[in-house]
Amino acid sequence: MTARPEESRGEAAAGDLSASRSAGLLAALVAELGATAVLSGPERPARNASDWSTLGAQAPLAVVRPATTEAVAAAMRICAAHGVPVVPQGGLTGLCGGARPLPGSVALSLERMTGIEAIDPASATMTVRAGTPLQTVQEAADAAGFLVPLDLGARGSCAIGGNASTNAGGNRVIRYGMTREMILGLEVVLPDGGTITALNTMIKNNAGYDLKHLFIGAEGTLGIITRLVLRLFPKPACTMAALCALPDYESVVGLLAAARSGLGPMLSAFEVMWPDYWETVGAMPGVRVPLPQGHAAYCLVEAQGTDEAYDAPRFQAWLERQAEAGLLADAVVSRSVADVRTFWGVRDACSEFPHVLGPHEPFDIGLPVAAMDAYVRACKAALAERVPGAFALFYGHIGDGNLHIVAGLRGADPQPKDAVQEVVYGLVREFGGTVSAEHGIGLTKKPWLGHVRSEAEIALMRRLKAALDPDGMLNPGKVV
Questions:
Q1: What does the domain layout of the chain look like in residue ranges?
Q2: Quick check: pTM over 0.90?
Q3: How far apart are CA 254 and CA 88, in angstroms?
Q4: CATH number given to 238-351
Q5: Tens of pLDDT along 131-153?
Q6: Is the predicted pLDDT of residue 203 greater than 80, yes or no?
Q7: Where is the signal peptide, in residue numbers (predicted)?
Q8: Which of 94, 91, 77, 118 is nearest to 227 (CA)?
Q9: pLDDT over threshold 60, residue 4
């Protein structure tokens, strides 16, 4: 088989694997890792055939489930020797096809690479295996009196290694930053099976290149993250939240500015929901929306403090000042932790959209904050013209420039994916945004990368890939 000019050896090998070669590969993997760690044929779990993207299932040649870094390295060496590409998999909650196998590839699942290895209270660090679910990491930090601020709706399913590989954002980026800012050290298996163990526990370490940044956000194309050292943060003594209805988007921008200046480091989240989102969620069973429909925008403002007796009244006073300034049309403020959870339940209800809306396309884009409402209006108008009858719901973190969209055509099979993507991503380029704010590129956004990255940037990405993985054995065809 002759590879296309843009096709790596790994992609070509994945589509042209003879029965004898595959049998030899499987035998070598079983001999090294044991039969229980190598699942092929009818033993392959269906879940490993795809992620949460809308691309559909693609069964791998085999699912390999190593339990140690040494086993990951051995599996990588064997696959590289047989010319068979490897697709790393974590919690499989990605939306861009980054963990979706190629035909004839091996899916390397880190589901057995779980556990908290160490918590160091003095340095405020945690060493953890990459397959550990984010919620497990959060709970271990909480039990030790600390906070892991990374938080996503998929916290119970997503793996911390996958969070690092996609540089996940989540709900509290406005205060704590992206996953990148929470990682001090990594252990990584390279495409040739070599291992870099750089489990740094120091915040200040300028000894040469900071290699961890090659792998954070690289979506498993340059190396397989097996262990991480995370920064831990002080656990907040109190959390306050308010759901606010606003008369226009200018008030949203004003409220964000007031929250940054008036709440300072207490501000931990600033979420915005447009009316269509609010109306859809309000009609969902089990979701209680504490404000009526009919407003231009809805904001969830969260603050975390160190002294409830001082910080809760301060938050209440700040909110009252915003009402007096005319920024708020209505608002409700939390009186308990249960109220905070209820407010977040409105925002997290988007996880049920596949059951409520049926098939649709999810989008994760970034835009200048001031331009978001203009983008929303332009996008709704363009979708109505291009795909008559299409629905589109808009919501996002806003404070960090992240807007989420779900769009589709009810009852359509297949969905008008191409038309919807052309509208959404075409306008992203016009408004000076990015096609990916926190979910990566994977397969689904690869055709649109040129909208937001220059030819020189993409060429440099390809040079990095070629330098670390010259044969394209690790997650080929993804990102660039």
A1: 9-112+461-468, 116-234, 238-351, 358-439
A2: yes
A3: 43
A4: 3.30.70.2190
A5: 999 999 999 999 999 999 999 88
A6: yes
A7: none
A8: 118
A9: no
